[in-house]
Write the structure tokens for this entry.
Amino acid sequence: MAKRDYYEVLGVSKDATDADIKSAYRKKAKECHPDLHPNDKTAEERFKELNEANEILSDSQKRTRYDQFGFDGPQMGGGSGGFDFNGFGGGGMGGFESIFDSFFGGGMGGNQARRNGPVQGNDLQHPMTISFEEAAFGCEKTIDFFRKETCETCSGSGAKAGSQPQTCPTCNGSGQVRTGGGFMVTVRTCPTCGGEGKIIKDKCSGCNGTGHVRKKRTLTIRIPAGIQNGVSLVKRGEGEPGLRGGPAGDLYITVTVRPHKLFVRDGNNILLEMPISMTQAALGAEIDIPTLEKPVKQRIPEGTQTGTQFRIKGHGIPSLRNGVKGDLILTVTVDVPRKLSEKQKDLLRQLDESMSGKEYEGRKSFADKLKDLFNN
């Protein structure tokens, strides 16, 4: 039978765009795909014809040669010896399955292979609470958790010793049940085997046919110095086992850091708010500052005001990236006494009367602003 013009085969004009050709091919391939027309030789030949036309017209160089020379052009692949179906998955029906998988998400063999292939096990989550100091310096913690493990009695098959899982009679091992006909085919997971393609009649007594048992596991976890609240540490392969030879999942340990009574973390710095007496603020003093390790001396200059900050280098938290420690940021608040004796009050009044007002910079600045406000 004479070959038909490729444009005619796809039902497009000679000035069709690449998108037009792709769309036409997809539409017509659905109409005659061998999966939807089993044992229909006419549909199979029509599908081959569509693939040959698409192979040429979807390639800009081949299309140009075809437009210039027709079927007689160099390397056009005319006739039975030119068009190679191996590029579509090995020729024959294997090629049809590959194309159907690619364009329509179906196929006869690919999905089953994926269903019966290895599957990675589930990941597990485990919470852990540590102290502020443990987060700052790092530590080791031992945790207990439960996970599914392969049943030793049946080696994970789920079947009783001396027996084997059997092919599911409902889906014949495919894991899927197809209903309908023609183009309208409905595919659903087999209700008998749950998509596994196999059923277990004689179940293992150790796992009741599941192939796995729940066991307690103990691990020692190294907490790095400088870890922050909410960070998850990952232990690869400590999750649940995979299916059909697939790798195990992972274990995620999510760390919660308890708040400290004195310190607040700000990145790698530590914030500390500390009260000082009115006398220390006015006269200056050397005071002991608590840190995460040991107290350090800090000079408070005379005339220090509430809210003044001091940076104490290297007494913060180490960086996870390079281990360099942050700083301790000290904020002082002047603690004004609330209960004074009459003698103490008299002494303070005498002190206040002896001052000219120049000693209070804040009060003087406010008075100047107030004066300017009323003079304007």
About this structure: The chain has four domains: 6-108, 119-161+210-259, 166-199, 264-369. Residues 74-110 have pLDDT under 50 and may be disordered. Residues 264-369 form a domain with the HSP40/DNAj peptide-binding domain fold (CATH 2.60.260.20).
